[in-house]
Amino acid sequence: MGERARPMTLQERRDYANGFDEPADMLAKPERQASAEKIRKIADLRRQAKGISC
After folding, report:
1. In angstroms, rounded to a whole number, what is the distance separating the alpha carbons of residues 35 and 53?
2. Cβ neighbours for 38, distance < 8 A, ≥ 6 positions apart
3. Sign of CA dihedral 34, 21, 16, 45
4. pTM of the model
């Protein structure tokens, strides 16, 4: 994802943050079976987070 030309609005930030709720719940409750798509999405988010934190 490229850099944004403007900062996110409050609603955009909330929408973005809400996107992490479902995968985080799945990680917290491993007895719930995640689909292959969700597993890939979580792996992608982890890779992106590692890239950002450097």
Report:
1. 27
2. 22, 23, 26
3. negative
4. 0.40
CA distances from 49 to 33, 44, 46, 53 (A): 23, 9, 5, 6
Rounded distance, CA 45 to CA 40, Å?
9
Q: Do 42 and 27 form a contact (C-beta atoms < 8 A)?
A: yes
- Tokens, residue 1: 């994802």
| Rounded CA separation 6/40 (Å) | 29
Q: What pLDDT, on the 0 to 100 scale, is given for residue 50?
A: 75
Supply φ then ψ for residue 10, to 5 degrees. -60, -45
Spatial neighbors of 27 by CB under 8 A, at least 6 apart, are 42
